[in-house]
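User: My instructor asked us to take a sequence, write out its structure as tokens, and then describe one feature of it. I'm not sure where to start. Here is the sequence I was given:
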Amino acid sequence: MLWFVLGLGNPGEGYAGTYHNVGFRVVERLASEWGGRIRERCGPALISNRIVTGAETVVLVEPQTYMNRSGSVLPILFERFEATISSLIVVSDDLALPLGKVRVRGKGSAGGHNGIKSLISVAGADEFMRVRVGIQPERDIGGVSDFVLSKVAKSDRELLEKSEETAAEAVRALMRDGIEKAMAAYNGIDLRPAKEN
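Assistant: Let's start with the prediction itself. The structure tokens for your sequence are:
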């Protein structure tokens, strides 16, 4: 089976270090680990070469359309590789999840995330696997759009990097072990430091 791991984010240097670009950073982490490069044009996306890792073959995908039009990459991608939504794993940030938590899901609503909303709209279905990375810090963040498009705060950086590393592990588990085992392994993880009584 050929897998597609699609990281959600916004293109351009100005967005590179923001909370909303978690998906891009996770697929770039996987590319680095697997010796792949995400630089080939495929319609409105950049994709990697076919990467063979263990028994799996993977193409990493970064939409170049801005978040709310991410779904426009799917028709060209699926036509070129003769693939379907069942081979798709989407990695995104999630403001409904605390910073330090990762969630694996097999399907579900967009939960207010414009990138996921666009993918569901274009695909006509919500039944694709996803790895959601929590970005909600334990402080008041003010406006949602200003926060997600802001650079990751120094105080959040270490925990978010650990979360992104865990998300990359979860992607590998999804391909290797399937949705049920990956959910059982990762949905209970809390990377936040234990609070002292």
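For the description part of your assignment, you could build on this observation: The two ends are 49 Å apart (CA to CA). Try explaining in your own words what that tells you about the chain.
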